[in-house]
Amino acid sequence: MTSISENSNHQQDATNGFVDNKTIYMVKKIFYTFCNEQNYLGFKEFKKLDEATEESESQLTEETFGQLCHYLMVENPTQGLDINQFSLIYLNQSASEALGSDLNSDFGTLFPEEAKVALIFDVYDIDQDGCLNEKEFDEFAKSVKNETIANTADNNDDLEKMRKGLYVALASILQYEVKIGLSLNNLIDLYLSDNEVMMNLRTGFNLDQLDKHAEEAAKKIGL
Fold first, then answer.
1. Are 72 and 95 in contact (CB under 8 A)?
2. pLDDT tens sequence across 85-103
3. How much is the pTM?
4. Angle at CA 19, nearest 5°, toward 67 and 73?
5. Each residue of 22-71: pLDDT tens digit?
6. What is the 3-state secondary structure (H, E, C) of 171-216?
7. CATH class given for the domain over 112-220
8. CA-to-CA distance for 125 and 122, rounded, in angstroms?
9. pLDDT tens-digit profile of 209-222?
């Protein structure tokens, strides 16, 4: 992400079509982890990001950072990139190809535990809209073999009703709309938050086995 292909055309200040909530979360997570107090990525901040995501030593210099800013049409390179300009590195096809950027790879390198949750999320987000709706959540709940629900239910109809009840109950706790569904951020909270309520939910509903669930999700998609 430190150089620009000589054959690339100057990118346009726009993303390519619909951007789902999961992708937006990942981009914001990266940006706000490294940006300064003024919410910009200057040379110093961007170099730290580059060093954290590159396997070899970062080759970023002030000159190449200036070229990047020019490519992204940043008016004040000294100030750096704001969230919208930064997002183009991943969300604009021309920019991502020219810069060799890979959102999933960078996110996985920076936040390996959250990346496991993102993998699980991807597998069950069948329509790829960035939310787990009721039907998709039901498939997810089946996959984690929730013992609390299974031990309480008398038959399959009861199991289905209990999973639906869980979906509705979580909506009030996690603050998502029932008609839309859980975001990646919601699922990350369920698996990783140290909030006492989340920790109790995680233990009670068999969500304390992230590595196992991520491995099973990977198998589903042939990884």
1. yes
2. 999 999 998 889 988 899 9
3. 0.83
4. 20
5. 999 999 999 999 999 999 999 999 999 999 998 888 889 999 999 999 99
6. HHHHCCCCCCCECHHHHHHHHHCCCHHHHHHHHHCCCCCHHHHHHH
7. mainly alpha
8. 5
9. 999 999 999 999 98
- 27, 87 Cβ separation under 8 angstroms: yes
Q: Which residues pair with 81 in a beta bridge?
A: 41
Judge residue 35's burial from the number of C-beta atoms within 10 Å of its C-beta, 0-12 exposed, 13-18 middle, 19 or more buried. Answer: buried
Three-class DSSP labels, the chain: CCCCCCCCCCCCCCCCCCCCHHHHHHHHHHHHHHCCCCCCECHHHHHHHHHHHCCCCCCCCHHHHHHHHHHCCCCCCCCCECHHHHHHHHHCHHHHHHHCCCHHHHHHHHCHHHHHHHHHHHHHCCCCCCCECHHHHHHHHHHCCCHHHHHHCCCHHHHHHHHHHHHHHHHHHHCCCCCCCECHHHHHHHHHCCCHHHHHHHHHCCCCCHHHHHHHHHHHCCC
Amino acid identity for residue 140 in this structure = F
Question: Which structure tokens are listed for 147?
Answer: 């013992």
Exposure string for 70-83, b = 16+ CB within 10 A, e = fewer = ebbebeebeebbbe
- Are 82 and 39 in contact, with CB atoms under 8 Å apart? yes
User: Is 151 a residue whose pLDDT tops 60?
Assistant: no
| Exposure string over 39-59, b if 16+ CB within 10 A, otherwise e | ebbbbebbbebbeebeeeebe
CA distance 221 to 53: 25
